[in-house]
Amino acid sequence: MRLPSHTVDAIGQNAREKLAAWLAEREIDRALAEGEVSAPSSGLRYRQTIKPSTTPREGDVVILHPDPNGVWSPVYVVLLEVSRDDGCLAIPFSRYAVPAVPGEWQTSFDAQPLRVLCFWNRREISGSDFISEAAGCCDPEQLQQIRRIHKHVFDGETMDQSNVWQPGPPLIHPADPRYDYLDEERDRLDVHLQWRTPAAFGESPENIIPLDLHQREKARWLMAAEGRPDYGTT
Amino acid sequence: MTSFGEKSHTTTAAAWHEWKKRCAAGLCGGDTQRMLCRFGEARFNAYIRRFAAAAGRFESNPLVKETADAWHLLETHAHTGNHRSGKRYKDWMFDRANEQGGDFVSAMEAGASLLMRDVVRLHLRREHAPAFMTSMNKPVGTSTDEESAMTLEDLLPGGVRIVDEIADREWNSLAQHHAGEFFARLDKLQAMTIWARSKGISFSDRRLLQWAKSNDTRLHKIYQRAMYDLGKTIKAMYPDEEPAALVHMAVLINTHIADAFFQKYFVQTPPPRSFNAL
Questions:
Q1: pLDDT in tens, A84-136
Q2: B158: which of A8, A63, B29, B188 fits an S-S bond (Cβ 3.0–4.6 Å)?
Q3: Among A6, A21, A36, whose Cβ lies nearest the Cβ of B162?
Q4: Residue of A nearest to B94 (CA)
Q5: Is A199 an 8 Å CB contact of chain B?
């Protein structure tokens, strides 16, 4: 039997090398974390809402308030948008040095904790979710770059191929171990933000990355990850 | 929490407060410097030993020889800039210790351990590249389970481009046919994991675990087994096709299996209340 007509686009060596590097770091990370478990919590945490001592600005890099019983090192996010009612659109940074999927991008930041941005895991947060004094900030060019990539990932706008900032390799195989990583990363952000919405935790739509392939806008990052032709080359 | 079996602290609250005030261990008094450096070395080496035991990757441990290096590595790794803002991770450590309540020094050492784990990961990543990084055909990871043994070539076989709408319909029609056959052989949990994965629902989602009456580790294994079986079935049906085409068919079949699951458990029968919104 033969499958219907099709062509196959070769995967570049660069993509495989990136994936190899990511998998290697993942393997190390899992070995180092073996046996570590979060201490049992008494349930959802409640934090007194404290007005931030400084006003956040777009482009600020901040650290989310820690999960005191958890096994996560600091979660850094960049504030892409800041609104007057204290709402912020935040993009988290990855724990790893290499982007895992096309929704993650290698940055030009020198600092180790800021090497990769996870656009796919963006969150709406408030000033009470993070340590109010910033850990750094983007220069105008970096902020502009982040905005461009954000539009590219979520709105499909084309990007310059010669961009220094580069995305992760495609996500093709249904049993790819990166799916577990994506679940884990989503949980990592959830647990740092759960104190804010105790009634909704576990039922929040944030637990779900919309993957309905009939709603192409929402699933675009995954389509890109799967190397769908209409996404364009990266 | 990290646990290294120590019976007593190797640092003091005063040392941590001094370190925070002075910015770096090298600017602290002699006692504080020694405490932090010894702590750093012990944690670094403990993580290295943990990795060696888990991965069995090397026989000799690449321990940090200079006691001062490990703590300095942590300070270098964790900072995000040259100004005071670049050391905001210290606020995070103190924030974490204060929120946790309980023993302050234990909490500070635990927070520092988490930062040191990142340092060790970076060190190992640079110093020890596993075999699959140089070969497309070596299994990735350390699992000896045949179902988990995929290579780089398996994971990135190439992108399939469908030439026109007619071919697209043929692909989907064929996938739907195969999905029907495969769905009939799946039990509810297997189909549920395929549906969950296709919807982007985490295997640790509380609603899913409640519905499945299971845990995330078991769901993951069930899913991997189902994908392995699906892969073998497709390969047997189309032995002459390229890996990229086989994987593309698997992805399409999964989509149709997810649809069939939705029809059976959400449309034809009342869905679980926690998933009503879907």
A1: 888 999 999 999 999 999 999 999 999 999 999 999 999 999 998 999 899 99
A2: A8
A3: A6
A4: A66
A5: no
